[in-house]
């Protein structure tokens, strides 16, 4: 009797293992079992300003049927979201100059992934706001918030890409953050822009006035 009990317990264990293995190993429904294993979270969130608003894209996740993009002005605290069946969504109505933090999830019919890595981004389409972003960056640097300052300098450069001082400020920040290769690139861009300004100034000074 004891041997029968042991064998019976083993049989039940094997059945449970088979069921559990079927549930966790398949990507969808297989042999009557439905997967509840969540898919991988999205990765590589990127941003592009388009006529309709802000285009946010990410890498597609195998097996995902839908995605949800979350965002808000505080880290890890999201106030808005948008659902989509493709790895891209256009957000409308974002206020200019506001720093938002974005994260996304992917989902199958029965499970949702964890949040992706959080990515900050400043949406702004008004070139006149560039000096304001620089001032905000300087204030953040004074308080030791270098990474947030870097975001505002980047926003200023997007709005006024021909200002060499902005690149020099970003180079300083990147140097402080250990991003030396990027800092050298910014300095090279700044030098080219300064050179263009000097050439333009000389041409203006040497051009004789037109005779009326």
Number of domains: 2
Largest sheet, if any?
4 strands, antiparallel
Averaging pLDDT over every residue, what do you get?
A: 85
The CATH class of the largest domain is Mainly Beta
CATH superfamily of the largest domain: Immunoglobulins
CATH fold node name of the largest domain = Immunoglobulin-like
Strand arrangement, major sheet: 6-5-8-9
The fraction of residues assigned to DSSP E strands is 15-25%
Q: What Rg, in angstroms, do the CA atoms define?
A: 27 Å
CATH architecture of the largest domain: Sandwich
Low-pLDDT windows of residues: 1-28
Number of strands: 9
Q: Would you list the SSEs in sequence order as H and E?
A: HEEEEEEEEEHHHH
Shape: elongated
Helix content: 40-55%
Helix count, per DSSP? Answer: 5
Q: Give the termini distance in whole angstroms.
A: 121 Å
Structural class: alpha+beta
What layout of secondary structure does this protein have?
Elements: H1 2-25, E1 29-30, E2 33-34, E3 46-50, E4 53-57, E5 66-72, E6 80-84, E7 88-91, E8 98-107, E9 119-123, H2 130-142, H3 146-159, H4 164-176, H5 180-206
Antiparallel strand pairs: 1-2, 3-4, 4-7, 5-6, 5-8, 8-9
Helix pairs in contact: 2-3, 3-4, 4-5
Description:
With 212 residues, the chain is an alpha+beta fold. It folds into 2 domains: 11-125, Sandwich (Immunoglobulin-like), CATH 2.60.40; 127-202, Serine Threonine Protein Phosphatase 5, Tetratricopeptide repeat. The protein has 5 helices and 9 strands; from the N terminus they run αβββββββββαααα. The chain has a 4-stranded antiparallel β-sheet. A 3-stranded antiparallel β-sheet has the order 3-4-7, with no helix packed on it. It is elongated and about 80 Å long. The N and C termini lie far apart (121 Å).
């Amino acid at each position: 009797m004891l041997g029968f009990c042991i064998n019976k317990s083993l049989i039940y264990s094997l059945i449970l293992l088979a069921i559990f293995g079927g549930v966790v190993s398949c990507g969808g429904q297989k042999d009557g079992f439905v997967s509840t294993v969540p898919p991988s979270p999205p990765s590589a969130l990127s941003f592009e300003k388009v006529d309709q608003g802000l285009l946010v894209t990410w890498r597609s996740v195998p097996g995902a049927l839908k995605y949800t993009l979350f965002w808000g002005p505080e880290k890890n605290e999201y106030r808005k979201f948008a659902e989509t069946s493709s790895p891209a969504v256009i957000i409308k109505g974002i206020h200019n100059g506001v720093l938002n933090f974005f994260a996304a999830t992917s989902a199958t019919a029965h499970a949702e992934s964890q949040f992706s890595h959080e990515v900050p981004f400043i949406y702004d389409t008004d070139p006149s706001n560039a000096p304001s972003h620089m001032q905000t960056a300087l204030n953040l640097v004074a308080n030791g918030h270098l990474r947030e300052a870097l975001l505002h300098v980047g926003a200023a450069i997007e709005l006024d890409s021909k200002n060499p001082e902005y690149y020099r400020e970003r180079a300083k920040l990147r140097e402080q953050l250990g991003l030396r290769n990027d800092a050298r690139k910014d300095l090279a861009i700044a030098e080219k822009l300064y050179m263009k300004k000097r050439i333009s100034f000389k041409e203006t000074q040497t051009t004789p006035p037109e005779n009326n």
